[in-house]
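Lab notebook, bench 4. The sequencing result for the construct came back, and we need a structural model before the next group meeting so we can plan mutations. Quick request posted to the team channel:

Model the 3D structure of this chain.
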Amino acid sequence: MQIAQISDMHVRVPGKLLMGRVDTAGFLAAAVAAVNRLEPPVDLVLMTGDLVEGGKPEEYAHLARLIAPLKAPVFLIPGNHDAREALRDGFPAHRYLPREGFLQYVLEDWPVRIVALDTLIPGEGGGELCTERLAWLERALAAAPTRPTIVMLHHPPFITGIPHMDRYGLANADGFAAVIARHPNVERIVAGHLHRSIQARVGGTVATTCPSSAHQIALDLVPGTPLRYVFEPPGFQLHIWSEGAGLVTHTVPIGDFEGPYPYGRG
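Done. Here's the predicted structure in token form:
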């Protein structure tokens, strides 16, 4: 089983660049093409939040057009730049999305079970897993205690070392880790928000963040450094599941690069 993860697309309305210079729509179109070229083809695509920039209906309409060419089914969760109702309304055919309340759900139809969480706090940059959402997670995981599971959310449940972004992290991350620790069948926690590939151990399993399909957050580790972005290569993550080996995660850059060339004596 192969799962592609695309994150932090920040799509604007057609013709508008993010911050006056980032063509997020063009970058997303390239990401979609890159995922479609994968062999063997992916089984599903997870999109882990900050799908659009301002949570506007016209942005979600543009997003829907951009991801329509994907050959595999697509599953969405909100990030801090999203708006629940506009997202819900913009994707009426996505029947897995609850029609009210938090946008969280469980996917049961593949060898790896997917548990999707909603960490959005409207109007805030950081995220939260409140008592209600953690109770829902506990029930969802307890319902299938032996099945390999991926938990997906937007805000990473760990300190990343990038001070500016850590100020807008996940509230109640300790409570989340405690729930995960009670369920050793969780193979991976997949997140976005950081616009970088970062890994950490959370609750006895591995958590990873996906790079943005567009711009990346600068690797600024000194406190007091302002938020900056860089045009490092955009990317996505590919999570590959097989019996015996478990789940392996690859970070895949998007772009035109020389090769592949055969190895040989030179």
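The domain at 2-253 is CATH 3.60.21.10 (Purple Acid Phosphatase; chain A, domain 2).
Will bring this to the meeting.
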